[in-house]
Design brief:
This protein has 8 helices and 34 strands. It is 11% helix and 46% strand.
Amino acid sequence: MKNALFILFFVSLWVNVHSQNNEPSAEQEQKLENITEKQDAQTTDDSYWQQLEYYSKHRLNLNEVEERDLEDLQLLTALQVQNFFSYRKFFGKFLSIYELQAIPDWDIETIKSLLPYIMVRDNSSIDETIGQRLRGGGSSLLFRIGQQIEKSKGFEKPADSSSYYLGSQQRIFFRYRYNYKNLLQYGLLGDKDAGEQFFRGSQKYGFDFYSFHFFTKNIGIIKSLAIGDFTVNMGQGLIQWQSLAFTKSADVLAIKRQAAVLRPYNSSGELNFHRGGGITLQKGNFEATAFASFRNVSANLVPDTLSKEDFISSFESSGYHRTQSENADRNNLHQTTFGGNISFIKSNFRLGINVIKYFFSMPIQKQNRPYNLHAIQGKSWGNESVDYSYTYRNIHFFGEAAVDRNLHFAMLNGALISVSHNVDISLLYRKIDKAYQSLYSDAFTENTSVNNETGFYSGISIKPLAGWSVGAYFDIYKFPWLKYGVDAPSSGRDYLIQLTYQPNKIWAIYNRYKNESKQQNVSGLDLSTHQLAFVPKQSWRTELDIHLTREIELRNRIDVLWYNKSTSDSEQGFLGLIDLFYEPSRKSYSGNLRLQYFETDGYNSRDYTYETDVLYNYSIPVFYGKGFRYYVNLNYNFKKMLNSKNQKINLKMWLRWAQTIYANQTLVGTGLDLVQGNKKSEIKFQMIFGW
């Protein structure tokens, strides 16, 4: 491991680059890695990246922008958003982008992150009629195909087993989308996972998953109208939050959930959305939303031979329908959902009331396990909540209080405080009853699900000198009831500190230390009940970015991890990588390359690492064991062409090759994904037509 560290450090002295348009910042990459690690699954919602890409080409006019538009960027804190509108209300419309420096709590780094997506010009006087919206927008058609080169066990049909993949190895995805200034958008997509059938068998209509959305906003009192697939976000996520939401990271001020109640859904995930219709109306200081959803979801069906009534033991969230057993669970539960929100909004104060009700075609009955004692049961469920936000001078307060159908309680309250021009503080307290339950919720909690937790979070951001910044947080929490793999009430704590130095546009470096300690079951003891012990996990990361030229940037990262240090089952992990990005100006091509080495003692010392990919797509694989990985991404933009209607057509293509080579292994993976040999390779192709 020491030799690998030396080699990577030496090589990193003269290699590295970054240049793909609208690539996530280091903080955004960390947030995505944290979500993947917390859920042990990668989010398939790419709506956020679509939004950033759209705003990069159709910039937000700061003299017309609305509060929700700035919140959708997820680059500003709630206090910064409120300060922006207070400034604009007091001083009138902006004359120059340089005025942003005068807004309280807006620093140079914040403004730089916004510049690709904003502009300043006089207010538009165009009457946005329905006809203009339907004819004046832009369309795009995306097609993506990829597959693993090596054939896994699931694609080898055994003679004596029904457990194998019914379809081909290819992953296929298409999406058509029309958008007019985000005021009107509609689209259709189809998705097929590797192993799923295509135009045969259980998927005789082609793709395993189809999604359609129609969304418009700002038509008189109609603030937004959604038909087809859409997401619902209410309060602070205690009863409902379906859009992308980040968890703890070095961005210590990003603790508040911010999004419009209704948003269009056009991603490939097959669970976390609604299908039906919704409308938001605004009149004066009041805003009201109502929605209804009627859809089938995949769930594990269990026949009850005694009562002769089938029941559902769990929901399927993977979206995979590759084998006979997975297809047996496909869309076998009908879910009807009704809900709404009414809010009072005045200046820097907001108060909302939220309601959601679910009805199922079959009863839900979780497995008879102690940790499932308080799980959702029956053929219906519901939640209600009240949320608020209020800005007083340099302090922004926010929170939500909720109950479920059985009147179990949950609450969350937070504050963002601007102490001075270079010091900001965030505070958040949550108390969620051990029996509280909700569906499709995502609050700022330690648990993956919103239940069984009490905790207090505090963070501080300091910018002591030009180019220097420090972000740190501390979070302490308790779980009053049992959890999966933890057979008693437990507790935990974690803290993080990150030091960043960016003296100029040429280079930047940050160092991050994270320490986490949770109580877990102690294994290996001959006891009738499990005992709990604190299991510490620490990690250190150093990342260096250097812009060698305008066209080339070098990125070098080193991760070191320790699991349960100073005990007999301790593990240690190491990961080092070098990224090279190349994007020549005024050229049609660009690309990037990664070289990576990893070595860990086991799964407990695993590392999650963000990888760049084709546009709107990214991957965060988990690495453990020992091996090398590399990938290459290539992009080519063809010259604009004219069609029969004299419209300009853009064609962009991406090609990606990735391979992991494991040391001292003859098998890779488990179960049906088992591969003979020591390599896993993937190829992916994507093209987008735009007109």
